[in-house]
Write a structure and sequence with these properties.
Length: 401
């Protein structure tokens, strides 16, 4: 930064995929953007080789695909590392487990979703940002936020500052921007950790994502990767998660055989040393906007990953915020209170529905009470036989409201 105060139209705080997408979206709309990311951590002594498979993956829906395509990012992904999801198979538990199946043909679409690695997505976004002439990337630590009637200033460590019309908080679940705005928060820890790893499967997965609701052991999901590879996301209770993290990937594969053996055959770890875990929580901020501030992504909402839509909610936030700002009346500024209120209203229903759905499913399928097991399995079977309701559910999941 060449001066103590750097002016910009929009300052986006964050360094993840949602922050980068927001920067590209506003830049494409003609605004000058400053992307503020925290100082880089020291480089790892042994970074994962490019040929390895990232254990952090996302199931991106059509909303995400359309947004990233419009920003010329989707075409920059390494297509050989992107797997289309052609079917989704949900399995209940118990002696007579229920089941629910979705497929692309029944949904009248080419594919249900795409499995994309975090590294692949961020590399494509970084490449696009290098060609965005009106995006300035700044590495610095924010220490204060000064909100005014006509502008908002982000104060940085070292005495410099960024002055903007609008600040976008895309800085994750523990958002600094949200904290600076004194936005209240409803928080609940699920008492679970998501255990993630990748495996070779003996039999072809045919592009099908598999999910098992196991009751006391949580929710197991195996997502298709290119070739005969699958990515595990196991939402396991804390005690079980601690045991899983202490085991080898091969021991984890042996545990998964209980669920996957019949459909995928033997599972073999891709990287025997690579099993990761992260805590799961529900976070409901009391507002998505404040004076000249808008929140997107995990800064605005954190949901259980059992539906795989946390990242998709974030992309929908970005799409809606950019569109709402672009469609404002000529006399209104980028950070106008009424403009931001329209954004919050537009996103309220979609976010609330996903929060209620994921939280409700976790509560329903997280108990081993036999009467509830019977009811939920019957419910899965009944839903599987109601094509109209199934189509509505899948349309929402695809991002085609």
């Amino acid at each position: 930064m060449t001066s103590p105060i750097s002016p910009t139209d929009i300052c986006i705080v964050g360094n993840g995929a949602i922050a980068k997408t927001a920067a590209l979206g506003f830049a494409q709309a003609g605004q000058s953007v400053t992307l503020l990311s925290p100082p880089s951590a020291p480089a790892s002594a042994s970074p994962a080789p490019q040929a390895s498979w990232d254990v952090r993956v996302y199931a991106l829906n059509h909303t995400a695909n359309n947004l990233l395509s419009s920003l010329k990012v989707w075409g920059a992904l390494d297509a050989a590392r992107v797997a289309p999801v052609d079917a989704m198979l949900v399995n209940g538990d118990g002696v007579q487990p229920g089941g629910l199946a979705f497929d692309a043909y029944g949904a009248h679409t080419g594919t249900l979703a795409w499995i994309v690695e975090d590294r692949n997505l961020n590399q494509a976004l970084d490449a696009a940002l290098r060609f965005a002439s009106n995006v300035t990337t700044v590495s610095g630590r924010a220490i204060g936020l000064r909100q005014g009637a006509d502008d908002i200033t982000v104060l940085l460590e070292g005495g410099s500052a960024i002055k903007a019309e609008l600040v976008v908080g895309a800085d994750g679940a523990d958002s600094w921007v949200r904290g600076q705005c004194d936005i209240g928060l409803d928080y609940r820890a699920y008492g679970q950790n998501a255990i993630v790893s990748n495996f070779h499967c003996e039999r072809p997965h045919h592009g099908a994502a598999q999910q098992w609701f196991t009751g006391a052991d949580g929710t197991v999901a195996l997502l298709p990767l290119p070739g005969n590879l699958v990515s595990l996301v196991w939402s396991a209770p804390d005690a079980l998660a601690e045991r899983l993290r202490g085991e080898s990937a091969q021991q984890l594969a042996d545990r998964l055989a209980v669920y996957a053996q019949d459909k995928l055959g033997k599972l073999t770890p891709v990287q025997p040393e690579l099993v990761r875990g992260f805590p799961l929580r529900l976070m409901r901020p009391h507002a998505m906007v404040a004076q000249r501030v808008a929140l997107v992504g995990d800064a605005a909402h954190v949901v259980h990953p059992l539906a795989g839509h946390g990242m998709n909610l974030g992309f929908a936030d970005v799409e809606q915020l950019v569109r709402t700002v672009n469609e404002r009346e000529p006399q209104r500024g980028l950070g106008d209170e009424r403009v931001l209120a329209r954004y919050a209203r537009a996103r309220k229903e979609d976010v609330l529905l996903m929060q209620l759905a994921t939280d409700g499913l976790d509560r329903l399928f997280g108990t081993d009470l036999e009467p509830l097991r019977v009811v939920r399995n019957l419910g899965l079977n009944l839903l599987d036989k109601l094509p109209v309701l199934k189509r509505r559910l899948i349309s929402h999941a695809l991002g085609k409201q």
